[in-house]
Design goal:
mainly alpha; 9 helices; transmembrane helix; transmembrane; membrane
Length: 258
């Protein structure tokens, strides 16, 4: 009976120490939480003492977002041209700053399906057009013309090498109408220069027709010369050095040396 007060005394003495340690831990935890909340408040600019509560019973308001496809189709008035005049017809994308649209003029049609007055309809991609783009007929024409000259039948084509070629070019441009306008840098030059689309289309068609004719003439002359070399070597049996004039160059160099 006398030992009971002695055993209870240490427990009564140790309880204040435990309470003091617990109080210190709680105070330290509160300081840490306050410091962290203060730092988070400085970073985000709002209080973070309590987490926000979300009421899931409240239905969010219905928000209708615009359709991006519909926005893209909205009409916008074209901006004023850089040089004080409105943009010429045929370049609708220039108002939006699309300078590359100038290199590919659109083939737009009106409500009746007809093409504008300043723009010719595109050439249909038929079998004839595909064949003419290969220029095989020009190679065959060059061979035919050379054979006529080699057999002294040049009077059938007027005694000229290019009569048949030029006649075909006129037929191709004016009758077959296989001429196809290709975009070039001149489109941009004429647009920036303020030239009317009517006159610029005429000028472009003329210059590009001349360019096409010159390319065809070059192609024709190449195969004409190749046919001449092959005919002289394999039919007439003449050495290529003589045909190309190498022997004359050697004689001339020998005379100069003497």
């Amino acid at each position: 009976m006398e030992t009971q007060p002695e055993s209870a005394a240490p427990e009564a003495k140790s309880s204040p120490k435990v309470d003091a340690l617990a109080a210190r831990r709680e105070a330290r935890r509160k300081r840490i939480l306050e410091n962290s909340n203060n730092r988070l408040t400085k970073i985000t600019g709002r209080e973070h003492n309590e987490p926000p509560t979300v009421d899931f019973t409240v239905k969010p308001p219905d928000v209708i977002y615009p359709d991006p496809e519909v926005e893209r189709d909205e009409y916008t008035h074209p901006e004023q041209h850089l040089f004080g005049s409105s943009l010429p017809e045929g370049f609708p994308n220039m108002a939006n700053g699309d300078i590359f649209s100038l290199l590919n003029p659109p083939l737009s049609t009106d409500s009746r399906g007809s093409f504008p007055a300043t723009q010719s309809p595109p050439v249909p991609d038929t079998a004839l057009v595909k064949f003419l783009r290969t220029r095989i007929h020009l190679a065959l024409m060059a061979v035919l013309v050379y054979l006529l000259f080699a057999n002294n039948l040049q009077h059938l084509i007027g005694g000229s090498v290019f009569i048949l070629l030029l006649g075909w070019e006129m037929v191709e441009v004016f009758l077959l109408k296989t001429y196809e306008k290709r975009s070039s840098f001149l489109d941009v030059v004429f647009l920036l220069g303020g030239i009317s689309p009517k006159y610029s289309q005429i000028t472009l068609k003329f210059t590009q027709t001349i360019n096409k004719v010159l390319k065809d003439v070059t192609f024709f002359v190449f195969f004409f010369v190749v046919t001449h070399l092959l005919w002289s070597r394999f039919v007439l049996g003449i050495e290529l050095g003589y045909v190309l004039g190498y022997d004359q160059l050697e004689k001339a160099s020998g005379e100069v040396a003497n």
